[in-house]
Amino acid sequence: MRFRYLGNSGLKISEITYGNWITHGDQIGNDTAIACVHAALDAGITSFDTADVYANTLAESVLGEALSGQRRESLEIFTKVYWPTGPKGPNDCGLSRKHIMESIDGSLRRLRTDYVDLYQAHRYDIETPLEETMLAFADIVRQGKALYIGVSEWTADQIRAGKALADELHVPLVSSQPQYNMLWRVIEDQVVPTCRELGISQIVWSPIAQGLLTGKYLPGSEVPAGSRAASPAGSALGRRLVDDQVTLERVQRLKPLADELGLTMAQFAVAWVLQNDNVAAALVGASRPEQIASNAAAAGVTIPTEVLTEVDEILADSVERDPARTAEKTLTSRPS
Known about the structure:
- This protein is α/β, with parallel strands linked by helices.
- Strand 3 (about 15-20), helix 1 (about 30-40) and strand 4 form a beta-alpha-beta unit.
- The longest helix is centred in the first third of the chain and has 15 residues, at about 95-110.
- The radius of gyration is 19 Å and the shape is globular.
- It has helices spanning about 30-40, 60-65, 95-110, 130-140, 155-170, 190-200, 235-245, 245-250, 255-260, 265-275, 290-295, 305-315, 325; strands at about 5, 10-15, 15-20, 45-50, 75-80, 115-120, 145-150, 175, 200-205, 280-285.
């Protein structure tokens, strides 16, 4: 495993970070989830990402159980706050001081730890003054309940405003967690340059595009049974596959490039996001323990420049680059 600094902080995290969105408490049983976490530890992964909203808090509980007994100082545990949890009352979501201060205590209890290494705003909350949000995060840091703070799916302007307040409050805002992969590059034009300037790293989710970049979805074929696209949670992906046969064909043309490097398609996709020097880690999940060791092999891989150019030529206009797509992640009102 390789490690990278998170932003301009002194914190190092594993290039491959284990994330439990969709899987823990939902898609797979607890015994399998715990086995996946232990496989991640065996692969040298030390960083683990979750959120209170995943499986309506159950994912945090499963991760806490799985990491129980491990040396806490040897782990980096991340979680997030914003989306509705619990009975989903009027203050059970958003980034108000009330919700943040109550949510961190719930997350720490479920994760069985006194602190998280990184506490992230899971979305931008337009209904709460940014000053209120950042002061709550600053107080959590000063209370020792979080060591660093971050954001997820914020625009470049939102990140800049948040960083300015964090600096005034003398708390380390060091990370951004966006979607990023070969097909979805909307952060490259604005978010990444802004974060480089401000000393913020990316921890990217969906590096294999929800399985699309593994090559298992074949043009003109049915969606494989048991795949993400065949599940209720992946219904949107399934519809896209039906409608976008051109992209499926182009993805198949990436396989010879992966083969030349001795990588599986999934490893190639994960290694691709790590070529961006503003990316500190790629988030990977698993429904089976053996998937972890395979994905972990993408750490430390260098993809030659000429191969990166071939990827761009093959995928062509299948790549989404519009930076305005990030702004779409900001809800016009809090979810309920």
